[in-house]
Amino acid sequence: MHPAIRLADVTKRFSGTPAVDGLTLDVPQGSIYGFIGPNGSGKTTTLRMIMHILLPDAGRIEVLGSTGNTAARDRVSYLPEERGLYKKMTVRRLLRYYGQLKSRTIAQLDPVIDDWMTRLGMEGWGDRKIETLSKGMSQKVQFVGAVVNQPELLILDEPFSGLDPVNAESLKDAVLEIRRRGTTVVFSTHDMSTAERMCDRIFMIFRGRKVLDGTLEDIQAQYGFDTVRLRTAGGAAALTGMAGVQSVNDYGQMQEIRLAGDAQRFLQDLTSRTTVYHFEIARPSLHDIFVRIARPEGAAAV
Amino acid sequence: MKNKTVVIATSEFTTLVRSKAFILGLLMMPLFSALAIGVQKFTKDATDIKDRPFAVIDRTGVLYGPLQAAADEWNAGVRAAAPQIAPRFLPSQTSFAGDDQQARAALSDRVRREELYAFVEIPAGVLDPASNAEIRYYSNHPAYRPLPTWIQNTINREIVNRRFRDAAVDRALVTRLTRRVDMSELGLFARDTSGAIRAAAPVDKIRTIAIPVAMMMILLFSVMSGAPQLLNSVIEEKMSRISEVLIGSVTPFELMMGKLAGSIAVSVLLASVYVVGGLAVARRFGYGDVVHGVDIAWLLLFLLMASFMFGSVFITIGAACSDLKDAQGMMPPAMLLLMLPWLTWFAVLNAPDSPIAIGLSMFPTATPFLMLLRIMLPPGPPAWQIAVSVAITATATVAMVYAAGKIFRTGLLMQGKPASFVEMWRWVRAS
């Protein structure tokens, strides 16, 4: 089976500076693929190239088996990071317009629009103007605008940013629903916990280059069990000067440390210093891995 | 399933005709006309009726009397009119005793205190035909013309009468002998199909001038109401990142052509409303036959060319800028092109066959307006001039749409500082 997206050695430069540098990536059909990376690392540029909004300077991009600029256009949908809506249009008119641009007729679109509006709790919004909607409501409209054509590939740029937990939950359910219907979903996010929980595979781009690609387990396995989460009476102060502690992430009530060396010996040393309530040897979280790569000392290694 | 360009054009058209700008554009031309007529009527009826007292220093010793008599006659006419529509002119004779300069300064002070509106000095030599002496009118209201004009005409009439009398010439006879002969303007004689001669008809200014000018104005207003809207539309899409969604669904060229088509449909709708409304009014006043099918065809052709051309220009500006503030900086050259026919149509009207009229009507951005005017003005330009101007403009239109397409494709996704003209030229040249 062809991958939904295949990037082969893709490069894109702006004014001579590479925004994406020799990127190779396969996104399997039917998966949810998370794109992560710091601001300015090349995520949006990559997504725009996949959408043929930007053309690569080098390399090959295949979307749904097609390399042409327009062939897969009606089968792919894109939700940009911000806005993307006509303020003066009513919700239904806008959704019909976006659907018609994907070669659907109004007769085909109306039942799909009604279905999604019901699912997302948007009943009765059809005649409301976009400018009267809150950010959360607008984002839902944007999402429906991206799925009215029932795309085979849905690309979402930061779909959950700025949403309150209720709207974020509702949008998350919608993304999972569209995947259940067979759509491949690619989304970029800064929220590592969302990526961990939702994505089948995760791809991290940093300074235009691929630095991570695989399932969460694959990625975590690269780092081994070098992380300890603990809660002690002494808190972060108790860890000062302890052998093997490479870094401490202090959350106040608990600490997460990166440990080099034997965890059992470390536990013995720690109990001699303070009372230990919780001691968990774990793989690093995606958040931790992200920070390790994107921090200056990590960046130097890339 | 509709073509995507048609979908965009339909959406653009629907959005534009629902906007306040369209309603305003629809009303603009009749509103301007009504306003112009209304203002004229108002200013005609609401004439200044404030009394104008003025002092006269008559060194001839004979002119004040006739001046006073003429003022009395004028004032009697003013009083007889109901309502009063002109001011009364109230002369008072004065003379200088002692230093003339002191006297003039004193009278000037009275004018400043508004006891007088002006004062007039008539030198003794004015009655002598060989003299270069001139009447002096002093006032601090140089913009007000009726009083000095009336004084000058009245005194001159009396001076000329006196000169005739002194020369023993009968003024009434001279007037009879020098009476101007009127000339009526007519068209040409013609022969009908049976060979019978049809007499020349008097020139009707409404048919020969007002209608051509009205047609050109309809074209100008229709283009001005449609094309600049494209700039707002493109900038809104850029600022709201709608462009990214659209370019994910259609090619930039489809998007641009859809927008142009929508805007042109708006201009055509406006022009149709104006033409139909104008014809209804014309028919009511007996001019139902003044506009022919071929005139409408010319209007439509030039409307399409102008809309494509100016639409491309405004789309280009929109694509090159990221917000309205930037766009305002790039607007003047485009507006100048649009204003060119507005600034020059009167010269073309006065002499449609002059070199300047021919040259201007061959300049692509002015051709649609000025060539339409020339075509409508009898007898119309030679066919070769029409053909050349249409060919030049059609070529320029295609070139501008092509260039706009290139700039639009690149500029649409650019954010931040607006593109310079050099950058845009580079985009046009890029493959």
Tell me about this structure.
The complex is a heterodimer of chains A (302) and B (431). Chain A is an alpha/beta fold and 302 residues long. Chain A is 33% helix and 27% strand. Chain A is built from ten helices and 13 strands. A six-stranded mixed sheet of chain A has the order 5-6-7-3-8-9, with helices on both faces. Chain B is mainly alpha-helical. In chain B, the strands form two sheets. A four-stranded mixed sheet of chain B has the order 2-1-3-4, sandwiched between helices. In chain B, strands 5-6 form a two-stranded antiparallel sheet. In chain B, helix 11 packs parallel to helix 13. Chain B is elongated and about 95 Å long. The chains are: A alpha/beta (302), B mainly alpha (431). Chains A and B meet through strand 5 and helix 2 of A and helix 1 and helix 8 of B.
How would you summarize this macromolecular structure in one to three sentences?
Chain A is α/β, with parallel strands linked by helices. Chain A has helices at 43-50, 91-100, 106-119, 135-147, 165-180, 192-198, 216-223, 263-273, 286-294, 296-299; strands at 5-14, 17-27, 32-36, 58-63, 76-79, 153-157, 184-188, 201-206, 209-214, 227-232, 245-250, 255-259, 276-282.
